[in-house]
Amino acid sequence: MATVVVVGAQWGDEGKGKVIDYLAAESDVVVRGQGGNNAGHTVVVGDTKYALRLIPSGILYKDTVNIIGNGVVFDPEGFLKEIDTLQGQGVSTDNIKISDRAHVIFPYHKYMDVLAETARGGEMIGTTKNGIGPCYMDKVERSGIRICDLMDKEIFVEKVSKQIDRKNEIIEKIYGGEKLNKEEIITTYLEYAQKIRKYVDDTTVVLYDAIKDGKKVLFEGAQGALLDIDLGTYPYVTSSHPISGGFTVGAGVGPNMIEEVVGVVKAYTTRVGKGPFVTEQDNEVGDKIRVAGNEFGTVTGRPRRCGWFDGVMVKYASRINGVTALSIMLLDVLTGLDKLYICTGYKLGDKIIQHFPASLKDLGKCEPVYEELDGWKEDITECTTYEELPQNAKVYLQKIEELVGAPIKMVSVGPKRSQTIVREKIFK
Ligand code: GDP
Ligand code: IMO
Ligand code: MG
Fold it and tell me: What's the domain count of the chain?
C-alpha cells in the first residue's frame, strides 16, 4: 500500500496545492474527498500559475488519474469553466473521474448562500458564496441531487423540478428574493450532463483497485482542520470534514487504507472569513506578512488576515488528523523580520491552557503566550537542503516540531516546484 493524505492544518490556504503537485509527480492517483470549488489551490510551474478549484492538483501530470470523490459537492458550471481554463493553458484534462455519488450544486444553492449570508448581517460567516453549505444541507436533509440522478434524464427532471419549487418558495417567502427560472435550470443542467457524462464513474471501485494494485494514491485535502464542521471554529467553518478522517467517507475507503498523513502549515497563520484568531496581527506586522506572502484569496481575492504561528492550534490539528509529517510552507515570507513569535499556550483568565477550546466565547478571550525567537536576514529562496537554511530558521523550525510533536519532512521556500526542501521522502 502506498497512500498519503495531504491536509491543511490551519484555516486553509496553507499551500496544499503546491505540496499535492509536488507529490503528484510520483503518484498514480490523486483524490479529492470533500468541499468543492470553495477551494483555491495554486500551483506554480516555471512562470505559469494554475489556480485549481474542483479539479485535483494532480492534473498537471498527464498520466495521473484525478478523482473527484463522492464527498465533494460538484458544481458543473465551475467544473466546465475550469476544464476550459486548463485546456487554454495546454493542460490535458482527459484523466478525470467524477463520482456518481457526489452531490450537485445548483443555482439555488449559490443564491441561497448569498441570501443567507446577507440575512446573517453582522454575524455573517464570510463564505465563498459558491453554494457549498446549502448543497451539503440538502445532502444531509436527504433531498439532494447526485451525479447519478443527473445522468438519468427522467429521474433528474422529476427531482429537480420538485426541488426548484421548494427552493423558490423559501427564496421568496423567507428571504424576499427573486424566483429562479425552472425551465432554464433544467435545460442548462441537461446540457451539462451530456458534457460531464464521459467522466462519471464509480470512483470507489477505481480507488480500491488502485490501492490493492499497490499504486501510489494521494488524497488531496481542501480547506483546513480549523474549518471542519465538527472540530473547527464552529460556526465559522465550512460544511464538510477537511480532516484526514474525511477521506474515509468522502472517498469511500477504509481508515486502514491511509498510511501517511501530511499536515500542511504556513510558517505563520492566515485566515479568510470571520471568526476568532488568537495570534492575529491586525497591525504593521500583519501587513508585512500579507504583502510578502501575497496573502489575497485565490478564489475571492479577499485580503487574508495574518498572524504569528499558533502552536496550540497546529498541535490540535495534528492530533485530530493523526499527522505523521509536517510540511512547513512560505518560510521565505518571514525573512527580514527581526523577531519572530510562536504561540506556545493560551492564557484564559488566570490559567494557561494547551488545548484548543470548543467555545468561541472562550477562544475570543484567549491571549497568546509567545516564545520570542530571532529572525534571519539571509535570502532562503534558493536553499535546496535543510542544512543550507540559516541557523535561526532551523531553530524556528525545530521549535515548531517540538511544540506540535510531529517531524517536519518538507519545507517550502517559494511557490515554485524547485523551491521545495525534502528532509525525508513522503512516499516510501
Ligand atoms: P492551498 O489552498 O492550501 O492550496 O493554498 P493557496 O494556493 O490558496 O495559497 C498558498 C499560496 O502560497 C499560493 O499563492 C502559492 O503559490 C503560495 N506558496 C506556496 N508555497 C509557498 C512558499 O513556500 N513561498 C511563497 N512565497 N509562496 C508559496
Ligand atoms: P483551500 O482549499 C480558506 C472558508 C471561507 C469561510 C468558510 C465557509 O483553498 O484551503 P464556504 O464557502 O466553504 O461555506 O465558506 O470557510 N473557506 C476557506 N478558507 N481556504 C479554503 O480552501 C476555504 N474554503 C472555505 O472563507 O470562512
Ligand atoms: Mg487556497
Answer: 3
Q: Are residues 63 and 110 in the same domain?
A: no
Burial 219-246 (b: 16+ CB within 10 A, else e): bbbbbbbbbbbebbbeebbbbbbbbbbb
**Chain centre to alpha carbon of residue 392:** 30
pLDDT in tens, 146-199: 999 999 999 999 999 999 999 999 999 999 999 999 999 999 999 999 999 999
Q: Is 175 helix (H, G, I), strand (E, B) or coil?
A: coil
96 lines ligand 1 (CB under 6 A): no
Judge if 192 and 205 occupy the same domain: no
Instruction: Please tell me the number of the ligand nearest to residue 18's CA.
Output: 1
Q: Is residue 16 within 6 Å of ligand 1 at its C-beta?
A: yes
Residues 184 and 206 in one domain: no
Atom of ligand 2 nearest to the CA of 273: 27
Ligand 1 touching residue 250 (CB < 6 A): no
Q: Using CA atoms, how far apart are residues 287 and 295, in angstroms rounded to an integer?
A: 9
- CATH number of the domain that residue 151 is part of: 1.10.300.10
| Domain match, 285 and 396 both | yes
Quick one: 272 and 389 in the same domain? yes
Residue that has been written with the C-alpha cell 510520483 in this structure: 26
In a domain, 353, yes or no: yes
Q: Is the pTM of this model over 0.90?
A: yes
- Active-site residue flag, 41: yes
Nearest CA, atom 13, ligand 2 = 238
> Which one of the ligands is nearest to 227 CA?
2
CA of 300 to the centre of ligand 2 (A): 10
- Name the pLDDT band for 125 (thresholds 50, 70, 90): very high
| Residue 89 alpha carbon to ligand 2 centre in Å | 26
